[in-house]
């Protein structure tokens, strides 16, 4: 039987690396030969980076990550390859910007940064150069340039990648874009003074949008102060854009207030989350449900919501009229939640650093399947990893009194259990 093409390529590549290593370690190697090893190794490293990025793009187009329960490819890459979040996002950005795309109608679309993609494929630009170019061309100043100007800037940046370090390229590129954008944003002299926030639900029942404006300086400052405190980059390698960081910060603030804040009463009672369930769905074990502000919940999303929330089930008849309104109950008693927090010290998923105040409680054995609300059936998870556990093949269990996570086979063929070293510094893997 013929050898698998990937296995064959791996074997040949390993043989070449072994030869290169032997040449570098040879006592007879000259200084020039050793310096040559460095340049050759860097060239090979860039070529391998390009292989990884192009493969990530292909996997994304096929939906292989989402089919395995991952909403974002960076999370899948972190689990599969052991990367930090910034490293995974760096590869995803490169894949999205330098590789061909498939349109909604199935047609092949050119890469967003074609010149950068060519320089990357040729080894003239490294992965960090690609990230810098994508960031520069995604800036507000670059977006104000004409299409022709942007294309010209991209070609110049790609051409300079072989000459400049990433830091030098960023400085040079920012100055170039600033020169082309001398006028800056156009003033809006006719705008009226307003303070408003408009919520719109998406027509496809998935999420929505917020549009706001606050001309009142004090009101805006109060909002900006809270969001700014939570939207700062986690570290120097946090590659999330400002818009994404601020959006996630706002969502976390609202979630925190709902869980812990003194929210004003609404309609004579404290606000809770209403889940609208059709009678026929309830009779068939609640296969779907609707939220107050729209959006249909899948069975997994409904189970996730019910893990740790004050939920009021509202049963609807065929015509949509309420037939029964359930009583709000808190699934996890406060004392038990404190016990889980004392044990897990935050999100228990390997590699996560979310503190207890930003987590939710997950029933390891679902409540609907008879899982008890007891310490040995509960685990703390942040919202991202709570969703991952519900929608992917990760398995959670309690062993020796501590939670551990068994990865899917595509992440780790041996499925070695993992624990969070941040909360259990003496345990990196559950051996």
Automatic annotation (TrEMBL):
InterPro entries in alphabetical order: DUF222, HNH, HNH_nuc
Domain HNH nuclease: from-to ranges: 335-387
CDD domains xref list: HNHc (cd00085)
Origin superkingdom: Bacteria
Record-stated family: Belongs to the Rv1128c/1148c/1588c/1702c/1945/3466 family.
Entry protein name: DUF222 domain-containing protein
């Amino acid at each position: 039987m013929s050898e698998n093409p990937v296995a064959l390529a791996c074997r040949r590549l390993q043989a070449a690396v072994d030869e290169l290593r032997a040449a570098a370690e040879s006592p007879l190697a000259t200084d020039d030969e050793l310096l040559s090893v460095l340049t050759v190794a860097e060239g090979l490293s860039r070529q391998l980076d390009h292989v990884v990025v192009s493969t990530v793009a292909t996997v994304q187009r096929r939906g292989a990550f989402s089919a395995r329960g991952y909403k974002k490819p960076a999370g899948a890459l972190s689990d599969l390859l052991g990367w930090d979040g910034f490293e995974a996002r760096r590869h995803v950005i490169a894949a999205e910007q330098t590789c061909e795309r498939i349109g909604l109608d199935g047609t092949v679309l050119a890469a967003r940064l074609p010149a950068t993609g060519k320089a990357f494929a040729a080894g003239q630009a490294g992965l960090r150069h690609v990230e810098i170019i994508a960031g520069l061309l995604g800036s507000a100043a670059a977006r104000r340039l004409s299409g022709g100007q942007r294309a010209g800037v991209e070609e110049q940046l790609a051409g300079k990648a072989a000459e400049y370090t990433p830091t030098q390229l960023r400085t040079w590129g920012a100055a170039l874009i600033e020169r082309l954008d001398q006028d800056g944003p156009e003033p809006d002299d006719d705008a009226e003074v307003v303070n408003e926030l408009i919520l719109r639900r998406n027509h496809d029942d998935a999420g929505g949008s917020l549009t706001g404006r606050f001309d009142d300086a004090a009101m805006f400052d109060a909002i900006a102060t809270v969001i700014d405190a939570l939207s700062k980059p986690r570290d120097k390698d946090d590659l999330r854009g400002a818009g994404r960081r601020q959006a996630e910060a706002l969502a976390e603030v609202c979630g925190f207030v709902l869980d812990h804040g003194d929210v004003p009463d609404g309609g004579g009672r404290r606000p809770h989350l209403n889940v609208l369930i059709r009678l026929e769905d309830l009779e068939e074990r609640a296969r779907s449900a609707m939220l107050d502000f729209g959006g249909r919940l899948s069975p997994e999303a409904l189970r996730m919501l019910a893990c740790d929330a004050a939920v009021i089930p509202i049963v609807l008849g065929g015509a949509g009229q309420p037939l029964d309104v359930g009583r709000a109950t808190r699934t996890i008693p406060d004392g038990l939640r404190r016990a889980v927090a004392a044990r897990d010290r935050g999100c228990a998923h390997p590699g996560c650093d979310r503190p207890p105040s930003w987590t939710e409680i997950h029933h390891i054995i679902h409540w609907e399947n008879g899982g008890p609300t007891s310490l040995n059936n509960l685990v703390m998870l942040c919202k991202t990893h709570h969703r991952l556990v519900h929608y992917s093949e990760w398995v959670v269990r309690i062993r020796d009194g501590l939670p551990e996570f068994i990865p899917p086979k595509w992440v780790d063929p041996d499925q070695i259990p993992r624990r969070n070293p941040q909360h259990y510094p003496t345990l990196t893997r559950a051996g």
